[in-house]
Amino acid sequence: MMTYEQYYRREEVCGICPTTTPKPFVYLCLPASRYVEYTSKLLANPAEAAYVVPRMSAWRRSHFKRPLARVPNEDMVYRFQLSRVLPASADIPAFIALNRTLYERARDMGGTRLTSSAIPMSQADWIRHYGPAWEPFRAAKQRYDPKNVLTPGHNMFPGYAPSKAPE
What we know:
This protein is of the alpha+beta class. It has helices spanning 4-8, 32-44, 46-49, 92-108, 123-130, 134-144, and strands at residues 26-31, 52-60, 76-84, 112-113. A 4-stranded antiparallel beta sheet has the order 2-3-1-4. 14% of the residues are buried.
């Protein structure tokens, strides 16, 4: 019998889990009203649920105080994390494409992504993600990071990609 903490952290101590393979995790925030529908559909589909270690937790929207935190517009939201520990032979681009599909489904249900997810995004996606906060965010980015040193590879602010680390 495992404790909850042992269960939650089991992949961190997994002796057979490959440590050098990519782990295309997905972190989503779902509205409570759609959570059961979303998770039931995903877990019922073997292709979508392959190699998944799901983790969920309920959060109150009112506890989010950071202005750029994007969460669904309901009092209760669910963080839904899909941790995948893939075999070395896994088709990583296919799993990243699947992440995009899962994100779009969540977004269409009023969900959001948490920014550490392995989900390809365009600048238009980021603008939609941040909504009315985008313009102040863009202005701050331009003012405080004009050379786009921070997060140049996430397609938030395409057009400048430093060729070497800043000196």
